[in-house]
Amino acid sequence: MDALFSIALQFGVFLAVAAMALLAFRQVEAGSALRRRMRERAVSGASLAAGPAGGLLKDTKPKASWLGWLQSRTTSGDEKKRSRLAKTLAEAGFDQPAAVPLYFLARVIGAVGLPAALLIAQKLSPNPVVGLPVIAGALLLCGLGLVVPAIFIDLRAVGRRERLEHQFPDALDLMVVCVEAGLGVDAAFIRVSHEIAPSHPEISGEFGRVSQELRAGRSRADALRRMADRVNVDALRAFAALMIQTDSLGASITQTLRSYSGELRERRFLRGEEKAMRIPVLLTLPLVACILPVIITALLLPAGLDVVHNLMPALKRH
Fold first, then answer.
1. Residues 6+ away with beta carbon under 8 Å from 7
2. Do 192 and 209 form a contact (C-beta atoms < 8 A)?
3. Distance between CA 198 and CA 192 in Å, rounded?
4. Where is pLDDT greater, at 26 or 174?
5. Which alpha helices (DSSP H) does the chain contain, by range?
6. Are both 95 and 208 inside the same structural domain?
7. Mean per-residue pLDDT, 5-22
8. How many domains does the chain have?
9. Does 50 score more than 60 pLDDT?
10. How many CB atoms lie within 10 A of CB 88?
11. How far apart are CA 300 and CA 292, in angstroms?
12. Residue 189 · residue 210 · CB < 8 Å
């Protein structure tokens, strides 16, 4: 009974802290409601003045009503922080309108669900742990529930950027072939996205997204800028800037693509040489840590054995 009472008391304290945090959040939200409404009116007025091209392919709000409510609850804070989070989620591959509210929902579920699961497990256990260890474990699980989704998104974004940078030169070579064969740039995006989908899914999805925006009526410069901002990869940023500059100057797209493809190929070769030159430096630590002790032991052990064999009789005589 004492253990059950202690667990119930700890769970009550946890719920009280969560209620106080929710109340404080509501107070902050009520204070910023007027500024949010003014921003929404300003944005809606700007979108009406700009015409229907703002939401060309995707809605900015999730279709599900409960996700829309969750987005309105979670995006009432700093606009810069929200846009930075949305950009990071897009770099990780989550560019859906519901990505931001689902991210906050995952963090809330992790922060609340993991400590609750620990308390339930302690309640059902025949030998429950009570006192300070349970509180420390609940706080640790709450912190992990808040931190782990952010770490996962960051690692996924970094991995996706590396894969895009690795896959883009092959896609660019195929695009050069398509353009030299007579296809237009818009048709080349479609063709390349279909051909490299099995082996290079990330760059295929980005090229497919560009082709969809082009077919929907967005200009090529705008579609390329959106792709460069979405992926945050230096090679694709340079490609988008090069294509936009080529269109504006009226230069040959075929020659531009071939020159940039050769530059990327040379850059990949130099990167491979750099990694090859780093191998001796990286092998130094394993050689020193593993082979050098064995060599020293093999050289000094016979001499040490001889010294011990010669000194032992002298020590026994004394």
1. 119, 122, 123, 128, 130, 134
2. no
3. 11
4. 174
5. 2-31, 33-50, 65-74, 79-91, 99-124, 132-180, 185-195, 201-216, 220-231, 234-249, 253-286, 292-317
6. no
7. 59
8. 2
9. no
10. 18
11. 12
12. yes
- In whole angstroms, give the CA distance from residue 147 to residue 155: 12
Three-state secondary structure call for residue 74:
helix
233 and 88 part of one domain: no
Do residue 180 and residue 112 come from a single domain?
A: no
CA distances from 124 to 14, 17, 29, 137, 281 (A): 19, 24, 39, 16, 55
Confidence check: pLDDT of 107 > 70: yes
Q: What pLDDT is recorded for position 222?
A: 92
Structural tokens at position 116: 């609750």
Cβ atoms of 249 and 109 closer than 8 Å: no
- Candidate from 18-22, 73-77, 116-120 with smallest mean pLDDT: 73-77
Q: Which two tokens stand for residue 95?
A: 């560019």
Q: Which domain holds residue 227?
A: 162-268
Residues 144 and 219 in one domain: no
Mean per-residue pLDDT for 78-90?
78
- Give the pLDDT mean for 172-187: 89
CA distance linking residue 110 with residue 116, whole number of Å: 10
What confidence category does residue 43 fall into, taking pLDDT thresholds of 50, 70 and 90? very low
Question: Amino acid letter at 3?
Answer: A
pLDDT in tens, 204-228: 989 999 999 988 888 889 999 999 8
Half-sphere exposure in the Cβ direction for 161 (13 Å, CA):
21
- The pTM for the full model equals 0.63
